[in-house]
């Protein structure tokens, strides 16, 4: 299908809803439109912070093909969710950028879904997470994320030793 700048108003009006959504995706659709992206994000969200994967390892962890990852991962890299690491390496490795605002929201969403499933949803009157409840209710994934950050920070003295204390 031609890019959006090549579509006439008539062509846009004649599009079905599904076709329109695919041609003009929302932010949500941008990161969830391909199953590979969803599986890759889930693999990273389930991994310790700072964990790096090459394409083969990521395919194994995510449950999809290397070819599919190679074809789609640039979307997550371009959004800054995934960092592509190449310096002084024989192969490209990928890691989740935990400082990216999208990544932070993905962790929040993960934690909120887990809380709701446990019957303890965060309460809010203005549509934003309730800070007090968010601090009191620490999800399994959130606590593992925090522990991983602490382990990484504590292991900086071992940098360059080849030992990765938070490997999965």
Outline the secondary-structure elements.
Elements (H helix, E strand, L loop, with lengths): L8 H6 L2 H7 L3 H6 L2 H11 L7 E2 H8 L3 H13 L3 E4 L7 E4 L4 H17 L13 H6 L3 H15 L14
Antiparallel strand pairs: 1-3, 2-3
The CATH homologous superfamily of the largest domain is called: Winged helix-like DNA-binding domain superfamily/Winged helix DNA-binding domain
- Following the backbone from N to C, one meets helices and strands in this order, namely HHHHEHHEEHHH
Low-confidence stretches: 132-141, 155-168
The general outline is globular
Describe it.
The chain is mostly helical. It folds into 2 domains: 11-97, Winged helix-like DNA-binding domain superfamily/Winged helix DNA-binding domain (Arc Repressor Mutant, subunit A, Orthogonal Bundle), CATH 1.10.10; 98-159, no CATH class. It is built from 9 helices and 3 strands. The protein has a 3-stranded antiparallel beta sheet. Strand 2 (82-85) and strand 3 (93-96) form a beta hairpin. Helix 4 (35-45) crosses helix 5 (55-62). The N and C termini lie far apart (41 Å). The relative contact order is 0.11. Mean pLDDT is 78; it is low at 132-141 and 155-168.
